Amino acid sequence: MIVLIARYELDPAALPGLKPLLLQTMRDTWDGSDCLSYSIAIEDEAAGVVTIVERWRSEAALLAYLATPPMLAFHDALQPAIITFDARIYDVAGERPLPPPPGRSAAPPPRLTLVYAGNGISAA
């Protein structure tokens, strides 16, 4: 498994118009790809700071998806608003659930949850 963390600094004036594109990209990524989870956080709307965190089955799956027409269109639409961009891929050797606090039992997580809270959109 790999994790991709991308941080964008976008033109703050363009950000409201880009929110539907960000949401649609999240949905497109889930549809027929090997993406295990995808989260978008608008960390600072006034500064245009957006972070995207994705978990993928493999780097090959991620790279193949990045070359698809929806992702190429996403990058083309976002490009005029980008001030800075940084993306890193992390190799994950193992994964385990976070244990519950002492004295608490763990509930199984849902298979897919979309959460709209504040400026963040998350799917896992």
3D architecture notes:
About 25% of the residues lie in helices and about 35% in strands. With about 120 residues, the protein is of the alpha+beta class. The protein has a single domain, classed as Alpha-Beta Plaits (2-Layer Sandwich), CATH 3.30.70.100. Helix 1 (about 15-30) packs antiparallel against helix 3 (about 70-80). It is globular, with a radius of gyration of 16 Å. The protein starts with a strand and ends with a strand. The mean pLDDT is about 85.
Secondary structure blueprint with pairings:
Layout: E1 2-10, H1 15-30, E2 35-44, E3 49-56, H2 59-66, H3 69-78, E4 82-91, E5 114-117, E6 120-123
Antiparallel strand pairs: 1-3, 1-4, 2-3, 2-6, 5-6
List keywords for this structure.
6-stranded antiparallel sheet; globular; 124 residues; alpha+beta; 3 helices; Alpha-Beta Plaits
Low-confidence stretches: none
Structural class: alpha+beta
Task: Indicate the percent of residues in helices.
Answer: 25-40%
Radius of gyration: 16 Å
- How far apart are the first and last residues' alpha carbons, in Å? 15 Å
Strand order of the largest sheet: 4-1-3-2-6-5
**Quantity of strands, as a count:** 6
The geometry reads as globular
Element string (H = helix, E = strand): EHEEHHEEE
Average pLDDT, to the nearest integer? 87
How many structural domains can be distinguished in the coordinates?
1
